[in-house]
């Protein structure tokens, strides 16, 4: 498949990596459904001291985008280094390793390069794979601990299912009672073991929160006042958006405490926002444990660290809860990178993609980038944050036989919904300079005809012809 970006001249990367005989270690942290509602990206509510510390030690990419707005295809993309059009993964029901069992995934490649590779929590979706140096530690999706909730969770995947438990839980328990504390504990153990063995390692840790259900120890709920939780002002679909682009209700509305088929009340919105923020802080605390484990083992300064969300998340804004639409909020994600020896506390406004993580880790670790990778290393931006970069980032989403392919430029998001090449069934154009929340689709406005034509040609020339 050809690159969807025109080649540009990159400045040489002159970062002075540590002058040690050992290879650099890698910590890759994936946080489920984390949008940039974190304090190091300007959110005034979130309490995320571990993320703030990582940002201070490394670099924040302010405009990073996922390639797909749901878990499975997004993770399949950045863990394989290939776009969803190439992997063919465009839904959550197909296990990644059933489709790409022979592909050179990130963890498989680092194992081939002599690394000890460990996995904990949620890395892939509905799949584990066998490319790990030790048995993979898998955490549970429904991790309620309150007895009546746990009973429902335990039988949900059986014929005796009584439906989903509540969307929230705030028991007064320790961190390891819930899934992400357990993933952090496994990561701590393996980091200590690897450091003792003296072999270069890659630790891939996936935190399930703030994905639903919003279960976290009570102390994280106590960090926030529910009455202070924000309520989106734009609780309506974008004006003029095609029907195919819309989402009506969805994942949140399957939980026992959320009425299905009716809009949420302000009280339920604040409850949901409270749960999301509590889980963000819980995941942040588990990140802190893993970072402390690196420091305790004496390998923090010699470890490359990448952290990202797998997709964005709507909280009622644009009339949507959760994800599964091809708009700004569901594709915009946090991306933090710490490179040993690089300048600390940097920020970049370049348009980057999660697809870039694989080649970035290879280049930083001193490894060749496999030929199949379709992203590019972010190391030049670490050295020169303001240099010229991509003209746009790309995301996509499929509904049945119709596929949305969306490009995000510096100012606009343009999306074509097609049922086969050239058979356009919906068009979207949002101007974030004039309309930061993406409330109005401008594609049908006569004054924007030239933009629609321009971006349509960009689609035709830059997206791979074989899709």
UniProtKB/TrEMBL annotation:
Pfam families the record matches: Sulfatase
GO molecular function: iduronate-2-sulfatase activity; metal ion binding
GO cellular component: cytoplasm
Ranges where the Sulfatase N-terminal domain occurs: 25-366
Family: Belongs to the sulfatase family.
Superkingdom field: Bacteria
Organism (species): Pontiella desulfatans
Leader sequence segment: none
Keyword terms: Calcium, Hydrolase, Metal-binding, Signal
Cofactor(s) this protein cannot do without: Ca(2+)
Protein name: Arylsulfatase
